[in-house]
Amino acid sequence: MSDREITFAEAIREALAEEMRRDARVFIFGEDVAEAGTPFKVLSGLVEEFGTARVIDTPISEPGFSGIGVGAAMTGMRPVVDLMFGDFLTLAMDQIANQAAKVHYMSGGKLNVPMVFRTTMGATRRSAAQHSQSLHAWVSHIPGLKVAIPSTPYDAKGLLKTAIRDNNPVVFFEDKMMFKMKGVVPTDDYTIPFGVADVKRAGSDITLVATSSMVQVALGAAEMLAQIGIGAEVIDPRTTLPLDKKTCIESAKKTSRAIVIDEGYEQYGVTAEIASVIAEGAFYYLDAPVKRMGALNVPVPFSPTLEDVTVPTEQTVFEMARMLCGKS
Amino acid sequence: MTEHIDLEQSLQMYQQMAKIRAFEEKVNELYKSAKMPGLAHLYSGEEAVAVGVCEALDRDDYITSTHRGHGHCLAKGARVDRMFAELLGKEAGYCRGKGGSMHIADPDSGNLGANAIVGGSMGIATGAAMSAKMRRSGQVAVCFFGDGALGQGLFYEVANMAALWKLPVIYVCENNLYGEYTHHTETAAGEFIARAQTFGMRAEIVDGQDVHAVFMAMQKLVERARRGEGPAFLQCDTYRYYGHHVGDINRAYYRAKEEEREWMTNRDPLKILSTRLIAQKLTDASVLERIEADVNAEVEAGVAFALDAPFPDAREVDEDVYA
Ligand SMILES: Cc1ncc(C[n+]2csc(CCOP(=O)(O)OP(=O)(O)O)c2C)c(N)n1
Ligand SMILES: [Mg+2]
Predict the structure, then answer these.
(1) Stated pTM of the model
(2) Residues A86, B65, A61, A133: what is their CA dihedral angle, to the nearest 10 degrees?
(3) Could you report the per-residue pLDDT of B222-248, keeping only the tens digit for each?
(4) How far is B175 from chain A (nearest CA, A)?
(5) The Cα angle at residue A191 between residues A186 and A196, in degrees rounded to 5
(6) Ramachandran region of residue A28, left (φ > 0), alpha (ψ -120 to 50) or beta?
(7) How far is CA A151 from CA A217, A297, B103, B270, in A?
(8) Closest ligand, as measured to the CA of B102
């Protein structure tokens, strides 16, 4: 097994290419996925290898091609639908939430929808309110869907392979700011099971449960906390649905304090769900209320001076953790 | 073809087009010198569409705009300085820095907002037309969108209702041949105007590089709409000179350099108008040069204002979420 460093985008591309080689039923479609390789160039090179019959450019018709994906999945194919910006989930939502998510259950288990919706999330790109949202909580609300939200190239590749091999509809979120991030990824085939959190850093004083873009923020904060003698444990759930409740609870029991950090809107968000899981599961072990840090409850503003205060930062997480630990 | 258009109006349209051209050139510079946050989708090459359309409208008529919206906003009457301020995320911008390039709204000039969701404003424009009809205000609404937006199902829903209810809305399809990096022949089956005709809607195709042609076609459609004769669809064939957005520099994989050169040299909307006015001896080059110098000065002053203007205070971030 040989390891090398590749980017998050390359990890995604490798996972897709390997799964397409492995399984002729896998195909990709969406806007500008072929020659353009998506606006983020994540898919560059795939059309050269697999041709336009398996890497298919669509019109700007999100509900249409999402629905076509559902139908194809129900009848023997394994589509990967590309929704360029997570904000466009709203257009495709009926197909995802009312069709893809429910077909298996409504048919009494007779029909399957083995497909992946790949989409993006993340602010601070100065893209304003309709191109900056992190809407993973929307789909995490829906029984029948699975939701993966990787934070490293290694996790991205392993989780995407699992998603493609899964017999259920999976919504897969890639942080736009992370595409160029590098990390060690093995060349051998590997998958990462859903519902298994990863301890990104061990510590005994406070638990930081963080997702996707916020994992790096939490790790940065943990580094700052170490300087003042606070050991932070950083837990990355990697999938919000299913959620590895046990790892979150066990860590909080050990440290007795927890903050949940996620880039979705704070209100009714992923942070609320995970915080309640910890509050319930670790109640007798907690020395402080479980805190939540999400995106500010405002449409993401364009101006840098405004946008920068909408997401948690290393500094704000550090301060919250220091306060919870009673150090000033 | 210019019989109904007097010189003053032609020069006004020339000035508006030149202003948009100069504005967009400056936006590209701001991007390249890293002075503008984010990206922008330039309107250069398509000026005759926005100007010809908006020249046929009154100030209180409505428009909705797109991600490629600077031209629409300026043509409908927005100020250069406050546009630049918005693009730079400044407090003095049209949206106090909250919207940026893709979301400029200016209700004072009838602009209900640009939209970063392709086709996202089709409902809004149609709703504005419905409101105008209910209020008997005599206003019309214009919905600008690109060829790519015809992929959106929303169009077929609202066009059907607009036709059923004879709403005073005009759907202006800016056919610049591409949606992002894909030619429309790969994404749209059949004729564009057939989509509107199927609802019994009046539909026309016009040379979007000829501002007179756009204006005259539009005038008729606006009059019809004001008389209560219902919606219309105007396909304007045009071309964007730059990439899909300012960062789209290497375009050879989806469109040929020769094609770009052909449009820029032989189909340029400013050249077409100036050549015509000079050939008909209605004006001379010096008049047009004066106009260009004036708009350049306006753009220079506008950008200087915007660069100097303060950013919004971070505490404004949660203002404006609710009315
Ligand atoms: C619903 C939606 N899907 C995809 C996009 C991404 N996107 C932005 S502009 C664009 C192409 C639009 O093409 P067209 O409508 O022809 O307008 P043009 O850019 O050519 O002016 C796409 C796909 C988007 N903004 N909204
Ligand atoms: Mg187009």
Answers:
(1) 0.97
(2) 10
(3) 999 999 999 999 999 999 999 999 999
(4) 15
(5) 115
(6) beta
(7) 11, 23, 31, 50
(8) 1
Angle of helix B211-226 relative to helix B7-32, nearest 10 degrees? 110
B40, B68 Cβ separation under 8 angstroms: no
CA torsion, ordered B129, B133, B137, B139, to nearest 10 deg? 30
Contact B317 A39 (CB under 8 A): no
Distance CA B149, CA B155 (A): 8
Torsion, Cα of B36, B78, B287, B9 (10° steps): 150
Reported as a single tens digit per residue, the pLDDT across A27-58 is 999 999 999 999 999 999 999 999 999 999 99
What ipTM score was computed for the predicted complex, to two decimals? 0.95
Q: How far B219 CA sits from the closest chain A CA (Å)?
A: 30
Q: What is the mean pLDDT of residues A307-320?
A: 98
> Tokens representing A150?
């990787």
Running DSSP on this structure, what letter comes out for residue B229?
-
The share of chain A scoring above pLDDT 70, in percent, equals 99
The CATH class that applies to domain A198-324 reads alpha beta
Every domain of chain A and the residues it spans: 3-186, 198-324
Homologous superfamily of A3-186 in CATH?
Thiamin diphosphate (ThDP)-binding fold, Pyr/PP domains (3.40.50.970)
d(CA A57, CA A66): 13
Which domains does chain B show, CATH number per domain?
A: 7-307 (3.40.50.970)
| Chain B residues near residue A63 by CB distance under 8 angstroms | 153
> Percent of chain A having pLDDT more than 90?
98
A172-224 residue pLDDT tens: 999 999 999 999 999 999 999 999 999 999 999 999 999 999 999 999 999 99
pLDDT score for A327: 84
Residue B35 · residue B308 · CB < 8 Å? no
